[in-house]
Write a structure and sequence with these properties.
Elements: E1 2-7, H1 11-21, E2 26-31, H2 34-44, E3 48-52, H3 60-70, E4 76-80, H4 85-94, E5 98-101, H5 106-119
Parallel strand pairs: 1-2, 1-3, 3-4, 4-5
Helix pairs in contact: 2-3
Length: 120
């Protein structure tokens, strides 16, 4: 079973992602900002993280930087409705393994998820 951490300040996004990912064998943990995400990673040890860019307290880019310092091999997929080219490039440079545009396209999301899991 694949352990997934969903980090987004919008509960609707958690519900949407959980619904899509329920088509796979996953165990989902949720966090609603960057600080919660750091704690959740320590406890849940997820295989993959879906991380929103825009959040209160600690945004996704700051959270990504911190996670990559602590866990260099962690797999993080960034997500945003404001996926500017600069943000995408920054996220990939910091260490994200991909970037998903919101609203989520179910087929694209599952394809990316499967690709990441297959690579191990």
């Amino acid at each position: 079973m694949t352990k997934v951490l969903i980090v987004d300040d919008a509960k609707l996004m958690h519900k949407l992602l959980t619904g899509i990912l329920s088509q796979r064998e996953v165990e989902i943990t949720s966090a609603y900002d960057g600080n919660e995400a750091i704690e959740a990673v320590k406890k849940a040890k997820p295989d993959i993280i879906f991380l929103d860019v825009v959040m209160p307290n600690k945004d996704g880019m700051e959270t990504l930087k911190e996670l990559k310092l602590i866990y260099p091999d962690i797999k993080v997929l960034m997500a945003s409705s404001m996926g500017t080219k600069e943000k995408i490039i920054d996220a990939l440079r910091i260490g994200a393994i991909g970037f998903l545009q919101k609203p989520y396209d179910e087929d694209v999301l599952l394809s990316k998820f499967d690709e990441i899991i297959m690579k191990g």
